Predict the 3D structure of the following.
Amino acid sequence: MAAKNGLKALVVDDEPDIVELLQYNLNKEGFEVRTAENGKKALEIARAFQPNLILLDIMMPVMDGVEACRQMKEIPALKTSFFVFLTSRSEEYSEVAAFDVGADDYINKPIKPRALMSRIHALFRRSKSPQEESEPIRVGDLIIDKSSYSVTLKGKLLSFPKKEFELLLFLAQNPNKVFTRDDLLINIWGSDVYVLSRTVDVHIRKVREKIGEGYISTTKGVGYKFEFTGSGS
């Protein structure tokens, strides 16, 4: 079924009943839907189909959802796609692993279709929120370009998943202001998504690994701020 609203979704789960449930509800909301029973098949479909939304189970045969997400994040056409994990696993490390590879949301099974669709709509609403056009932010050797979703350091283009980019951009747009983890969770992930505060630490660490230690500082016991010190790489 072709999308009524131009949106496409890929459902990846090895449980046929869940796939059928999700496909039915996404079709009702106007999505064109493709499905896959494992991460390897999902990668093949994603490259050609280029979905706006990917719903991924974590535990699957052949390739699990976390690894599939990691590899999909390397596909340029999926740079602005949303990744939502669906899982029956409740361990904290599973959730951390999902957000570590760039998940936008993490939802526990059994699936409640109305609640799931509400959270999906919230993701798309935030992506359409009006954003003021601006020149690229240039600090030291770092250039952050909102219009192209790109980060350049010393002339080298860096690979930044969507949430890492949004986190860096938000901090850089508010220099020298300390934000708590809760502040960052609300501004980057939104109040509709339940995310562990540790997720912020993971994303900050990954951003620092790419741009060096001279741009984001830690205020112990409080949070983080964008503060160029000229140190680091």
In short: The first helix runs from residue 16 to 28. The domain at 137-226 is CATH 1.10.10.10 (Arc Repressor Mutant, subunit A).
